[in-house]
């Protein structure tokens, strides 16, 4: 049995990817400022609140289906309800909202410049492994799900 059939072979913890890039952005802002002023501060809090609400909705769907949110553990069930009807990765969409909200609070464009790195790491170091695990574990059911629900939104 291959490893991804037992559990996802996730390379990096998703929160670490976002946090490391935000820390890098904060560090770069201190050396080469790309600030854009306080205009987005209120919007930043709103975007963070939307991200947290989306995450809570996704967690409720996961826990309601008696499976794990841990990207290093095997899924017990394929979740297709709640926000998973619209996105195969609603927690990661919520993470993006929080990331953008923090960027607005930081008042710098550096997180935007780090965004392609975040996307690439999430897509290939996390999501690819989760998808391989889900396909190995749920087969045709997962393939049918991927044909009707987009990866992001």
Poorly predicted runs are none
Number-wise, the strands total 0
Average pLDDT metric: 92
What is the end-to-end distance?
32 Å
Which class of secondary structure composition applies to the elements?
mainly alpha
Shape: elongated
Largest sheet: none
Oligomeric state as shown: single chain
Number of helical regions: 6
Q: Gyration radius, to the nearest Å?
A: 17 Å
Q: Helical content, roughly?
A: 55-70%
Question: Order of SSEs, N→C?
Answer: HHHHHH
How large a portion of the residues is in β-strands, by DSSP E? under 5%
Description:
Helix 2 packs parallel to helix 4 (90-106) and helix 5 (110-138) packs antiparallel against helix 6. The chain has helices at 3-6, 14-31, 41-64, 90-106, 110-138, 140-148. The protein is mainly α. The protein is built from 6 helices and no strands. The chain starts with a helix and ends in a 5-residue tail after the last helix.
Question: Keyphrases for this structure?
Answer:
153 residues, mainly alpha
Short description:
The protein contains six helices and no strands. It is an all-alpha fold. The longest helix is centred in the last third of the chain and has 29 residues, at 110-138.
